[in-house]
């Protein structure tokens, strides 16, 4: 055990995590340069096939230093904040982490968020400054930024170029020297944590585990502690990008893949503890809490006959993505669909796109909503994921909404803009740190509701793309909130209701109807669009009637142009949903959350 090193790599997007991982794998001789190119391509296919949550690029490597043989286990982590639940399980399975920072870009928000997770797990951090081959590289400045923002000593940061290979051997030596060997009791009963799971078409549900105490043996009857499922271990393997090696036991301190022969991956939960069924460990390795969806949206087939197809498609996606949750829902406006829970906005986009592309479904997605804790006057608390289901005002004692801790790093010239944006989103400053004279780190608490739609795009546009952002859910806080309804041609469209702070309800209502007016295509008759709180109308706009047909403009002559217009119109129709007499395009459902 003293010669094992378990480590992960954490980095902001594009700082070179995958390139560096490939270099380390290559340097340890696990794959040749030729295989590496092949492997990278294969990986991309698999990633595409399996979608964004899948990592499983953990790998067990052999390394010899000063005549001593070491086993290096590179534990992969997903690269996006939406998956911080999984990141934290990967980190809990590691004893140290490489903190990669781009030598030209410096520390970014995602770096910080990941470092907090690593520190929660008491990991030994090795700062690594990558891309030192770039002309704009400034490793000294970046080392100072690491010290100021994270408060760790970066004088011994390892300087590398994952592209040219400079510094890679020094980096691996640093892993061996600086990351502690695993601790754990090899003689105790089995205690292992599942840090990833997925469905393999040949082998069934697979669990990627880190063993803390004891060992997992082939044929052993094991128990999954979160659901008390007992199953026999059919096979064990060490993870490798090209060739998994079978083994008879995964020992204390090691990582490995456990084959349980199950058809249903939802039994094998990330974060769960595996122990011996006959002689179980008293305490799990980690307290198990399932991944919680933070964002909910309604997904409805445009063609109402496709409801069953949508259900089958969601079922199929769930096989590989246990974090996906959904239940049937009915909307007066949209008919039968599902309320789907997502880990975050990226997760939502990926799922929607896969449903449309891989399953050929045309969908309407309602505006995403967070979960509200609604305390009723009768003492009960209900969780509301769909704004249209908010109980009436007279039944509500108070509403609590989820908050996040947000980290934003921006060049100082945009600081004013960024602070204005954060304040407009009801943000409260916790901390402001100058990383150096040109860059500032802001830490704010703000309602999650304010960041679900256009926060990131706005932040990028007011900082010319330079500010970075990351967040972590923290807790629930009371908010002064009301439901804003939208009436189209006199009818409340339930799928358009949103929950907003009372202080901005009027301005939101006005912006919303204005927005809708632009989006709703002219119909053959006049359409009133109204925003209301309860029975009180707070804003109104009118979509004028059209009367003429679209091709009237193309005074006869140009037939191709005419055809193009008609095709465009047809395409447009496909994406429309008729609500009463009115056709509403998909954007209408998202636009309710746009402020301007
Ligand atoms: N010049 C230079 N470019 C590098 C280096 N390392 C990585 N890159 C490039 O930086 C870009 C991002 O690298 P990736 O390895 O994909 O970064 P990542 O952090 O894994 O990004 P995600 O997978 O999107 O999270 C790619 O275009 C790489 O070729 C380096 O040392 N020098």
Defining key terms:
596 residues, alpha+beta, Rossmann fold, Elongation Factor Tu (Ef-tu), domain 3, Alpha-Beta Plaits, 5 domains, eight-stranded antiparallel beta sheet, six-stranded mixed beta sheet, 26% helix, 34% strand, globular, binds guanosine-5'-triphosphate, GTPase activity, EFG_III/V
Describe the structure.
With 596 residues, this protein is of the alpha+beta class. The protein has 5 domains: 4-178, P-loop containing nucleotide triphosphate hydrolases (Rossmann fold), CATH 3.40.50; 191-276, Translation factors (Elongation Factor Tu (Ef-tu), domain 3), CATH 2.40.30; 295-365, Elongation Factor G (Translational Gtpase), domain 3 (Alpha-Beta Plaits), CATH 3.30.70.870; 387-479, Alpha-Beta Plaits (2-Layer Sandwich); 482-594, Elongation factor 4, C-terminal domain (Alpha-Beta Plaits, 2-Layer Sandwich). Helix content is 26%, strand content 34%. An 8-stranded antiparallel sheet has the order 11-10-16-7-8-15-12-13. Strands 2-3-1-4-5-6 form a 6-stranded mixed sheet, with helices on both faces. The chain is globular and about 85 Å long. The relative contact order is 0.09. The chain binds guanosine-5'-triphosphate (GTP). This is Elongation factor 4.
Strand element count? 33
CATH superfamily of the largest domain: P-loop containing nucleotide triphosphate hydrolases
The CATH architecture assignment of the largest domain turns out to be 3-Layer(aba) Sandwich
CATH topology group of the largest domain: Rossmann fold
CATH class of the largest domain: Alpha Beta
